[in-house]
Amino acid sequence: MTTQRIIDFLANERPDGPCLVVDLDVVRRNFQHLAEAFPATGIYYAVKANPAPEILALLASLGCCFDTASVAEIEMALAAGATPDRISYGNTIKKERDIARAHALGVGLYAVDCVEEVEKIARQAPGARVFCRILTDGEGAEWPLSRKFGCHTDMAVDVLECAHRLGLNACGLSFHVGSQQCDLMAWDKAVGDAKKVFVALGDKNINLSMLNLGGGFPTRYIKDVPATMAYAEAIQAAMTRHFGNRLPATIIEPGRGMVGDAGVIKTEVVLISRKSAEDEARWVYLDIGKFGGLAETMDEAIRYPIRTPRDGGETAPCVIAGPTCDSADVMYEKTPYALPLSLQIGDELLIEATGAYTSTYASVAFNGFVPLPTYIVGGESDAALAA
Ligand SMILES: *Cc1c(COP(=O)(O)O)cnc(C)c1O
């Protein structure tokens, strides 16, 4: 959602080079929608989606909790005002000394997906609460998460039994149905799988109390997506179908759904050219590409809406590429993108719904291009962040 405040900021400040502008009032609205749709569920913002300090501080002030993947992200959440009891260390792949540092900072909730990780936590964070991540197939997601995280349900039973034996609090399970998940039924199978593990452990007198439903809540790109309330209703139905009236506590970990539509990238057309006199396709080169923050265009997975100053006229298919000297730096080629025929070198475009997974994916200075700067508008004051 490109708000008037973002348009005004770009018109007045005229920042040079590509940049991301985030409107905090959209983040606030997204949090409120999630909180209304999931009133009895803990909301843990996935910090990696966009860790701008203003976003974290706003969410902390609204009572949000934080899902983190590293000591640095834990420190960012603490600096934003979150207390350690509102932080989970949700990465299943942690160095033992980072677990020790998280424990020293007061974090008491950890993700695992194998016995080896449980052993590290038992040594470095004795008595901590641990939840085991189970595999999902990621079907229906536009940015699926592979087999990298999670274990089979049979193994989850062993993992949590081991945690219990080693003096940890084996508190529950987690899964992630894949990012930008537009199939409301995706949660049903995962909740059903989770229920089997709850029963198997209950038979061993280990009573789990928490189910972490992960992220996957979408941002509207080009196609419409179901409303937040539709997700809440589908998930509630899945919980009741599988757990009856013995419902565990629940957590969600929205990343994209919290910040995706709160940000817009301003970019400039550097070059428009063709490969031969006969070739129809125009190549449009922008001053941002895969290495400048648009990594999720990999395999053309995420297709962002693009606004030009010449919208409304006749369009033709274009290949859209970035400015670096890496030939992988092409965003849309297999499925070309319709842009106005009147588009000119030097035109400024808006790549919309880019608040999530952009600034964090920008390379440090590939070919000398600086990492994507973020500007924050809305909230109390307009503040520019250093690049
Ligand atoms: C990235 C991540 C999320 C956020 O996923 P979205 O699809 O952006 O909501 C949630 N949980 C974990 C463990 C993650 O790694």
Question: What is the structure about, briefly put?
Answer:
This protein is an alpha/beta fold and 387 residues long. The chain has helices at 4-13, 24-37, 53-61, 71-79, 96-104, 115-124, 153-165, 186-202, 228-243, 256-259, and strands at 19-23, 41-46, 65-68, 87-89, 109-112, 129-133, 141-143, 169-174, 179-181, 210-212, 249-252, 263-273, 282-286, 306-307, 315-321, 330-340, 348-352, 374-377, 383-384.
Written account of the structure:
It is a single chain. α6 packs parallel to α7 (153-165). Residues 381-387 have low confidence and may be disordered. This protein has helices at residues 4-13, 24-37, 53-61, 71-79, 96-104, 115-124, 153-165, 186-202, 228-243, 256-259, and strands spanning 19-23, 41-46, 65-68, 87-89, 109-112, 129-133, 141-143, 169-174, 179-181, 210-212, 249-252, 263-273, 282-286, 306-307, 315-321, 330-340, 348-352, 374-377, 383-384. The chain is α/β, with parallel strands linked by helices. The radius of gyration is 22 Å and the shape is elongated. The longest helix is centred in the middle third of the chain and has 17 residues, at 186-202. The chain has two domains: 90-254, TIM Barrel; 261-386, Lyase, Ornithine Decarboxylase, Chain A, domain 1. The strands form three sheets. Strands 1, 12, 13, 14, 15, 16, 17, 18 and 19 form a nine-stranded mixed beta sheet that branches. It has an eight-stranded parallel beta sheet with strand order 4-3-2-11-10-8-6-5. A two-stranded antiparallel sheet has the order 7-9. The protein is built from ten helices and 19 strands. Pyridoxal-5'-phosphate binds next to α10.
